[in-house]
Specification:
By secondary structure, this protein is mainly alpha-helical. Helix 3 packs across helix 10, helix 7 crosses helix 8 and helix 9 runs antiparallel to helix 10. The longest helix has 21 residues. It is globular. The chain starts with 5 loop residues before the first helix and ends in a 7-residue tail after the last helix.
Length: 183
């Protein structure tokens, strides 16, 4: 399974962001505050950013509960977050492999009710065969998000929510609509 075309994802993100920027901006800001919690913050904040982005992709309005969804099953989300960050152990660049490989695991926990081991297995089975495409997709979206910081820091208020929408779009167009394989 391949990620969606990057241009399509960013185009959709821009269109949806323009329609009603404030709810997604607020949810991404909350998620970014959660990211500040040492070690476990990425695991607790990422599900909120992704769920808020998924709501926007679906034409829904994100809510504050979405940003805090990582706290509903914290062990599962912390473990997925640690898997995504585990590549740091390989001279830091390994995270460019592990983050794209496992980031959708958060949505599998939230929406499909999987535990972290099941989500990890689905990510390995479904994402790993096309890992190069997912790494490129993830890298471009993360770089795009980071570019907003170059505009006096304020640009990130546009690019970070757009990145959350683009990441959620990747989930929606791949694992979100796909039936899960039998255990």
């Amino acid at each position: 399974m391949n990620p969606p075309p990057i241009g399509d994802a960013l185009s959709l993100a821009w269109e949806r962001f323009k329609q009603d920027p404030w709810p997604i901006l607020l949810m991404v800001l909350i998620a970014n505050l959660i990211f500040l919690i040492p070690i476990v913050g990425i695991g607790l904040g990422m599900p909120g950013a992704l769920l808020a982005g998924a709501r926007v992709v679906r034409g829904q309005k994100p809510e504050v509960d979405d940003a805090l969804v990582g706290f509903k099953r914290p062990v599962d989300h912390i473990m997925i977050g640690l898997l995504a960050l585990s590549g740091i152990l390989a001279c830091c660049v390994g995270v460019l492999v592990t983050a794209p490989l496992f980031f959708m695991g958060h949505m599998l926990v939230v929406e499909k009710g999987l535990d972290w081991q099941q989500a990890m297995r689905v990510c390995l089975d479904q994402v790993k065969p096309q890992l190069a495409a997912w790494v490129l997709y993830y890298l471009v979206i993360v770089l795009f998000s980071s570019l907003g910081g170059l505009a006096c820091g304020l640009g990130v208020l546009v690019t970070a929510p757009m990145a959350a929408i683009a990441m959620a779009f990747a989930y929606e167009s791949s694992l979100g609509q796909a039936p899960l394989p039998a255990p």
